[in-house]
Amino acid sequence: MQRITRIVKKTIVNMAKRSAVVEANTTCPCINFQPKEPQSVKKLRKF
Predict the structure, then answer these.
(1) How much is the CA Rg of the chain, to the nearest whole Å?
(2) What are the extents of the domains in the chain?
(3) pTM (global) more than 0.70
C-alpha cells in the first residue's frame, strides 16, 4: 500500500510541475486579467 501511495504522490508532483511549465509559457486568455506569477514559476520560462 505504501508503494502505491508513493507512486501516486510522484505522479501528482510531476503533473503539477508540467502544468506550471505550461502556464509559465502562456498568457491569460482574458484581456483584462493577468494575475502575478510567483518567482518560482517565472524561473520555468523558456524565453
Answers:
(1) 15
(2) 1-25
(3) no
